[in-house]
Amino acid sequence: xxxxxxxxxxxxxxxxQRNQPICVWGTAPKGSLVTVRLAGEAAYAVARNGAWxxxxxxxxxxxxxxxxxxxxxxxxxxxDIAIGEVWLAGGQSNMEFLLRDDAEVEEAxxxxxxxxxxxxxxxxxxxxxxNDRDYSEVGVWRKAVGRxxxxxxxxxxxxxxxxxxxxxxxxxxINCTWGxxxxxxxxxxxxxxxxxxxxxxxxxxxxxxxxxxTELDRYRNLQHTMDNMPFDNxxxxxxxxxxxxxxxxxxxxxxELFLSRYSPFRPCGLYETMLKTIVPYTLSGVIWYQGExxxxxxxTYERLMQRMIACWRALWKAEMPFLIVQLTSFExxxxxxxxxxxxxxxxxxxxxxxxxxxxxxxxxxxxYDIHPKHKRPIGERLALQALSKTYGxxxxxxxxxxxxxxxxxxxxxxxxAHTGDGLVCRGETPQTLDxxxxxxxxxxxxxxxxxxxxxxxxxxxxxxxxVTVSFCQRPYCEDNLYxxxxxxxxxxxxxxx
Length: 497
Prior knowledge:
alpha/beta; eleven-stranded mixed β-sheet; four-stranded antiparallel β-sheet; 10 helices
């Protein structure tokens, strides 16, 4: 009789979701009766075509449990299980960014907390890659104890730490990320239709130019080179990076193989090789930090995210919440990038898609480093959104958001929601404001904040046909306006006639 198997994520030290049916699945010989036991509860299934799935009843938070799976004479036991809150951390390098590279790593790892745990989904882009790279340090559940915490996603760590502190239950983070990836890498091909079809078309055009006989070997060699190229992610760039000849050669090869059949950057690839390996592990929701790699296609980014969210909710058969990081202020690392359109698309997404909320990170950015080194405020702001929107805490979790405006003589009064006890300017005057009168920018104006209003005053406003005030509409800028909870103001453009 054959063996029973479970997905890799079912390991000692795992965290299971509380207060929801707990899904357990795997393989067993066809026709086998499978019994799953946890915390005095049991569920049963018959393996159909070798696959089985059960749902254990909802359970309260706790730890120290053992999950046992029986089929015939075969038994699997998984120990040291915690039951609490489970969140999937998805996206590209800023979510992938490890706590070991964070500016506050020494302080953050002073506090051991075995109730905070993280599982990193192995970065596999094609079938068989597990034999081409060293995966010995991933694909395990780690606890935030000692040096183990250094291998958590930094944003996920600070998010989990805040939830654990407020909810007093274990928190598990599933890290499903790959640096440099588009959101299109994490979606089923069935969802890339209509205006999203070009994502597939571009990949097919690129793949048609590659020789199938050498494509895999070329990609393996490139991956080996990239894996062994020294790069200290903990360093802060004071100026743009100028690639050396070796890096330039690798970048040229990467350009040719970027959408290869074996590349993690191809559309739909990581959906198959990473995401589906953890579906339908029971979750509370998703935290998402991504968009940098979709900056060139900002006009379709809102639609892409709508479809990706729909795809994931269909996979899990649940309307799970998505908490999204709005991209930070940034200008150039190796090339100039403009995230202004992506930021706007991310905010629109919160209005066009149910149960999607935004954490503003405009004040956390670095001019010449796409990877901000202080991830604590980002993780904690995501946690505020979770505590407010998912767990029903009566707290201020949203950034100040433009609500309306009116003109009074030489003054434009802009009114904001989510200000708490009032707007606060950290500095002598609001920064990164641009004012245009009838389409022409003016250099001299006064700006101040009070209660829930931003006041902009200039003599030209009196007779103007239109006045436009823009806030943080530059790739790199300073956001120094906050609400009473310390959350920075969302970028905006306001035009009054």
